[in-house]
Fold:
Amino acid sequence: MNSAGATESITVNNSGSIAFGAGATFTNNGDLTNNGLISMNNKALINSGIYKGVGNLSANLDNTAAGTVSIGNSAGCHLFNRNFTSVGKTIVEIGGTTACTQHDKLSVIEQASVGGTLDVQFINGFRPTAGHIFTLLTADFVRGTFSTINFPNGIAGNVTYTDFDIKLSIASVLPVNLIEFSGKNMAEGNVLNWQTAEERNVQNFDIERSLDGQNFEKIGEEKANNTPSTYHYLDDNARYSKVKQLYYRLKINDLDGTSSFSKIINLENQNTEGGKIKVYPNPVESYLNVELNEKTGEIIVVNSVGQIVLRQKEIKENPIILDVNRLPSGFYFIKTTSNTEGVKFIKQ
Structure:
């Protein structure tokens, strides 16, 4: 071959090879899998697509800003017999501590010049521990650093560079891979939802609430399942709060006594109007649901001329169900000891 370009897919199998003549060029804008040998007579393979595989490239590789190098075949090694230069994305897969069979490794015979983005991906259910070290690249000379390094949620690490290699060390691993923590203000209170993709040796989740986003107190807890799970928690006391916003976070307690915290979320409290009540359905025919935003000892129902037509003193449940079957059709007001104006409803 003297020159070529790819915009779709090319695969070089284990026993296969592609050889280019002197002065040849190759630009990949598609998906190139090299599990064999590509020889370019000391010229460059320019990658603006996806280059991957566990083969041998006897050429310079120039990975452009639009390109992605994703070696391995669910973990493997790739040999670059000349120079490796990347300003695009480099993806490494880690499924264990052994190079080539469990995690990716780039071997560069001459100079490796790195930049752009490094994406670290953990595969096959592998979860590293703090202190694990992985050699990602070796070369005769290493130049540059990755400008961006992406780790999966819950894992923090450091990349170190020497003149001859690039290594990844794991700094910390949270016991939970928390992929969602959100909440919603509802009539019955604030509902918190969280979802985990992974849990290991977790004892429980403490639910903490704050009025100012800084000082938190525990309001409940949920036992951990130690499997990927979805959790829900109802803060029914939120409906009695007079503050405009409430803040929440999760304290994740591990079995070894260590703890970590989720992000903080804030929910706007719709129930901040003192003793205001909610009634439904409205209009009503038979039974009226009454929700109170604060505790009260008595509620009364008055007609349009101010006469008390119904009274309930013992408030044991919330919402309260009032039987209004005997009331004539018309306008009425429900009042509490702290809400003298009342809330209007229509009896049909």
The chain has a mean pLDDT of 86. The chain is about 0% helix and 60% strand.
